[in-house]
Amino acid sequence: MLFSNIKDGDTYRYLVNGKWEKSSSKDLIEVYNPSNGRILAKLQSLSKSDIDDVLKNSKVSQKKWKNTPVNERADILMRAADLIVQNAELLSDLLSKEISKPKHLGMHEVMRTADLIRSTAEEGLRLHGEYLDGNAFYHSAKKKKALVDREPLGVVLAICPFNYPVNLSFSKVAPALISGNSVVLKPSTQGALSVLHVSDLFSQAGLPQGVLNVVTGKSSSIGDYLCSHKDVNMISFTGSTSVGKHIASISGMKPLMMELGGKDGVIILDDADLDLAVKECVQGVYSYSGQRCTAVKRIILVEKIANVFVKKFVEETKKLKTGDPDEDVVVSHLINRDAADYIKSLIDDAVKNKAKLILDGKRKYNLYYPVILDNITSKCRIFYEEQFGPVACIIRVKDEKEAVSVLNDSSYGLQASVFTNNLDKAFSIASQLDVGAVQINGKSDRGPDNFPFPCIKDSGIGVQGIKYSIESMTRLKSIVLNFK
Length: 484
Ligand code: NAP
Fold this sequence. Notes:
By secondary structure, the chain is an alpha/beta fold. It is built from 14 helices and 27 strands.
């Protein structure tokens, strides 16, 4: 599979044991270009017996890989990162075709992923165990010493969503590989092409056969089978809360890392720098059409500054460019028609429940222009439900106390932001918010990738971030020395 051969309508194969194979089912799945509705490519629809073979191969390959010195593993990751950078233009083109990601955002995703892989390789070199002495514990036998080591878990199943296919796939693959696991990667059907290409670059970088296998297929036929398979030792999943909860219910005792939906809120206080808050909120709501887990999905304004903020926010939003992803736009097509229908249903419901539609984004099939809804209350579905689209949801409150209570009135707990020039207030509010991370004077943001990205409540289980992801993909093992 070579980049120079990419043509629209191509049939892709899946990657197992270093080879590109056809599924035994002979079935294919079509991938569409969201911005024109045309078929972009076809993927293999794997059968359960293909999955059995892949997992058998991953299990065998892992045994050798875990004995490969970590500096050799790091060299391979570094070479893969270099190849990603060399192919960045082609990969960002592909992202714009398969998920309608504006070119500059696709390029950012690709370059960020190369950085993440390099940092993960470096962090892996620093991974070490510890030594404990039994005489440090009051009631212990004195003559014991423990060497505590970190071991890989085995075969990691990585499942990724459509919105950051490259970044979210390889932010799982890199920590898994550096710590000696093998990986079975199941990309989102819409987003699989760029993942297959990057996986090919890992092979070109010298990754041994079978250490990274990539499977494609219908979730309805192989999803549950994969997640409950006895040869999977860990699942690292990013996607919607409903699918995440379902996977958790069928995966038995497997360790889980789950990054799920979000409903990130921004609180803007009366002493905030409003120009900064407007700029951050416009980017936070609309970048990549709001199809981001950390998109700003609620703007909570204290009454005193609400009118001024809204006026400035409308002005800035009207300046945004909307259109095809290969033009220089911020808002492009939603991933499919169902996604756009869902956005429409949230807007209609809000208007029915007395919200004010102050910017009425027009719609062309699955392309939605920016929408602003003011006076949202808890009667509206959008107060609670995750809008994965370019819709600003403005909630007006009396004061800080009510702002905190509205922000916490959500089943999600990814991130939140507070805009204020009073640092004491910022810290006091941050400590009251039930979320994984709080941004002060900035929009929600997953990066930089060495920061922890904790997910709580219905937003997930565990912590991603380079060092934390490596830790989650290893287990502690102690060897205890007993002395006479
Ligand atoms: P999704 O529908 O949940 O799909 C995610 C992945 O799960 C896809 O690869 C999908 O495959 C697969 N899948 C579906 N059913 C499965 C099953 N039964 N077993 C195994 N795999 C299954 O999510 P999405 O629409 O792609 O992504 C949007 C959601 O992801 C939003 O809720 C967003 O907030 C969340 N997200 C969260 C984060 C975070 O860091 N917290 C980051 C990005 C996105 P198919 O495509 O083949 O169906």
